[in-house]
Design brief:
Shape: elongated
Helix content: 25-40%
Structural class: alpha/beta
Order of helices and strands: HEEEEHEEEHHHEHEHEEHEHHEEHH
Radius of gyration: 27 Å
Number of strands: 14
Number of helices: 12
Strand order of the largest sheet: 4-3-2-1-5-6-7
Length: 398
């Protein structure tokens, strides 16, 4: 037996391979992929070697347990390829086969360390990994049945994973001893609603009840039929308006994505009044304060429509964040997706906190000074009036 084979089996089975590439097909009349790339991936149940098969117009992934990967690598190389580059922490090995099948092994100084592979995988790791098909992504046309993300839907795939990363961060704030209730206001085609359900129920095993709400009847009917097809029994879709929705007396998480203008504020007020532990909101079309903002010292900025529009959007979200802090939430302003994909790239993430009355009072006083400086009276302030502290400046809530 040639020496290369027991070596590659050992490198694979002992988890020594940091990266490998097989190329140069032995035969042209073959269905084998033109190239195979191999790298370690950390999955929920342990470390695997991911084989990525590169065909003319697609790539297919297969995850193989480390203990079985060595034999798989040796068999695959021997059957299909004449060249391999295998990188380990101790050395890089190039394996070459002549046309008659005679092997030659060249040993070169290592160009990768284990930490490099870990960092590479960390950057590439997604909540929903490519190569492991998620049924809802397949049905929504983002993934192929083999788990390959379609190039035309890569932006949506990244957006979904970014959203799920933000959800994962706040899971400790949700109850784990009872079913969780989630309301998604303005759910639209519900990519993120399905993703949320997949993460919490399919991946994490939570007991979950989700309601997706939107005004478009045809969209709601499509989403409900897809939920039924996927067997997502805890996911229901309803036609309805955010401000009028009153079927719930309490809720654990409220999601509102791109609800236009004060519809975002109506959803935030609902969330606060329900005692939601987590709020995730991507605002949209902030027109309300554009009509209100007035400050003589800001005339150079407010005198230009485009600048005023952008400033008003930021001012609106700053007011929303301050008001949520004044009623006891810890608030973060996060980038949702890359700016080149859409200008609506701000996500307000708020989690219920145990902040003291003094802290809430301080947040309220900061807000009042900010509000009065800009001569604004946001909808959200009025909607939360009964929950806000009393102003030390006026003796009451304005």
């Amino acid at each position: 037996m040639e020496q290369w084979r027991p070596d590659i089996v050992r490198w694979g089975n002992e988890g020594m391979v940091l990266q490998a590439t097989f190329s140069q097909l032995r035969r042209k009349d073959t269905d084998a992929p033109a190239r195979t790339s191999i790298r370690p991936v950390q999955l929920k149940d342990g470390l695997y070697m991911q084989f990525e098969y590169h065909y003319a117009n697609k790539a297919v992934h297969e995850n193989v347990p480390v203990a079985q990967s060595g034999e798989k690598m040796a068999d695959w190389l021997e059957t299909h390829y004449r060249q391999a580059l295998v990188k380990t922490a101790e050395a890089d090995y190039q394996i070459l086969f002549s046309k008659k099948g005679k092997p030659a092994v060249l040993r070169k100084p290592a160009t990768m360390q284990a930490a490099d592979a870990v960092e590479h995988n960390r950057r590439k790791k997604r909540v929903i990994a490519e190569g492991a098909p998620a049924p809802f992504l397949v049905e929504l046309g983002i993934m192929t049945p083999e788990g390959k993300v379609k190039e035309s839907r890569m932006d949506k795939y990244r957006q979904i994973n970014r959203f799920l990363e933000m959800v994962t961060d706040v899971l400790p704030h949700l109850p784990n001893d009872r079913p969780i209730t989630v309301i998604d206001f303005g759910c639209g085609k519900s990519y993120l609603t399905f993703a949320l359900y997949h993460l919490l129920v399919v991946e994490k095993g939570y007991r979950l009840s989700v309601v997706g709400l939107d005004l478009k009847k045809d969209v709601i009917e499509f989403c409900q039929s897809l939920a039924d097809k996927l067997g997502y029994d805890g996911l229901k879709f309803r036609v309805g308006d955010i401000a009028q929705y009153d079927e719930k007396a309490a809720c654990d998480m409220v999601v509102t994505l791109h609800a236009c203008d004060t519809a975002t504020d109506a959803a935030l007020a609902k969330a606060v009044n329900w005692g939601a532990k987590v709020i995730l909101s991507v605002p949209c079309c902030q027109h309300e304060l554009f009509r209100q903002i007035d400050n003589d010292n800001l005339k150079p900025l407010l005198g230009h429509g485009l600048l005023k529009e952008r400033f008003a959007a930021l001012a609106t979200d700053a007011a929303r964040g301050s008001l949520l802090e004044a009623v006891g939430y810890k608030v973060q302003m996060l980038e949702f997706i890359d700016p080149e994909h859409t200008p609506k790239n701000l996500l307000i993430r708020a989690v219920a906190s145990s902040s003291s009355a003094a802290v809430r009072q301080r947040k309220w006083d900061e807000y009042v000074r900010y509000r009065d400086m800009l001569s604004i009276r946001p909808y959200l302030e009025q909607a939360l009036q009964e929950r806000l502290p009393t102003s030390v400046h006026t003796g009451d809530i304005i």
